[in-house]
User: What shape does this take?
Amino acid sequence: MSPRQTCLACLDREPPAMFEAALWIAAEHDPHLQVAEALCELNSLQQQVNAGLPDLPATELAQPLLRRLNELDFHQEDEMPLRPEVALLHRVLARRRGQPLSLALLALELARRLAIPLQGVNFPGHFLLRVPGADHLLDPCGGRRLYTRDCRELLIPHQGAAAELNAGHLQSSDARSMLQRLSRNLRQLHLLNEDYLAALKDADRVMQLGTPALADHLARAELYQRLECPQAERFDVQHALLLCDDPGQHILLSARLRQLSQVPALH
Assistant: This one.
């Protein structure tokens, strides 16, 4: 099977093999990646993490787990501009630097192996973690506890000073939605690094992992535009138009679609 097919097969297992699926996403971009070797590296890391955890009930070990990863030099990447390796799990394992989501995926896999209750939270702009039943969230980049006020402050850089925290911001994520978000991150990172073919792989995967949003169709349409594929661009503009409920944007998309309809098909 191809890396994409293997990734999707991992998610069809019960329970889903999310971390392995994320490694197969990385394998789409790095043909030299040996997933079995990366999983062996994770086994070694698990032993190091476990050796440094305090003797507490499993329900109290999520924050110590994140702090232990921090002690082992796993941190959020602060070097700008960001490169795709911050979202490729084998590179995160090797460099010990990543985005909040990639660090969270690592923590979730270790928590699963160590029977520590932990969930992903699809917070806008900065992926978070939750211990089921706790009155706070956890930052995957070091384990800081986040209460309601902290979450509001975390929202402002991404949605502006008028942003209001709501229950939708705090929803738990399943494996497919987390890897769909990972694919969106990679799509944007590859686009910023002008690797349009790599970004297109990620854009296609976004469509396969869950229901695509208006922004997903527009993002892929932009890639097709850059790659000079007007017929494929037209497909995504059509679907974006169906999902659009903003009158001004609807007018712009309709005009774009008319323009694309005038481009002759290539044979």
In short: The radius of gyration is 20 Å.
